[in-house]
């Protein structure tokens, strides 16, 4: 019997594409044996595993426009453009405005892997479901801490940055874990390689305090491109299905607009229609 997996690579506000994918899966009762989340992709997976379709869409289209969620004010005050404690605490805790259904999340039999980067030595950290407890969603914060835009998020004394600089497209990890049918959700164009230029200045800033993480950030484009090429090879073998947008709708990691968010979500929902046949083999 095949072991199915889904990987959401995140991508800041572009990750609303994944929210559309998961809402399609929820509406069509498509489940997976193992879920892998990187950065914002891990948050998409949390709501999916908690069986709360529409929840992540609200975060992108409603809460994300609040200054408490993400703003230059946050960065000036706390050195965090996105207030991860607000997103994954104030809003998401049991007494929050839009709580995650932790009991449903726990009952879901799917395995969970959330990718983060150790800010001190640059190693990859794979958190799992046992690292999540009620009202303690720190692994999602750690995986989503974009270097320079956010301070590293500390768990058990270890500072972590966004998993996208350590293992941005963890297809090889899923294969190693025994998964043989893998849905890969990208939020960039499938056939357009990532470039380095946007990471050069942030890496220079990061190098002052976290040189190992800075080196990873500087070379993230190369690792991302290599991992996408690996996924394409597995796709030719029928082991991977890549679901990716055909247009970025004016969205970037930390920039958004209402129209673009809506379009990107609808693309994710529509493009997910091939998943059912793929995982059923």
TrEMBL record:
The UniProt transmembrane annotation reads none
Which keywords appear in this protein's UniProt record, sorted alphabetically?
Hydrolase, Lipid degradation, Lipid metabolism
- At which positions is motif GXSXG? 37-41
Pfam families from the xrefs? Answer: DUF6363, Patatin
Q: Where is the PNPLA domain?
A: 6-175
Annotated GO biological process = lipid catabolic process
**Sample GO molecular function, one term:** hydrolase activity
Q: Which residues form the active site?
A: 39, 162
| Record-linked InterPro entries | Acyl_Trfase/lysoPLipase (IPR016035), DUF6363 (IPR045943), PNPLA_dom (IPR002641), YjjU-like (IPR037483)
Residue ranges of the motif DGA/G: 162-164
Which CDD domains does the entry mention? Pat_hypo_Ecoli_yjju_like
Give the protein's recorded name. Patatin family protein
What organism is the protein native to?
Answer: Bifidobacterium crudilactis
Q: What is the lineage of its organism?
A: Bacteria, Bacillati, Actinomycetota, Actinomycetes, Bifidobacteriales
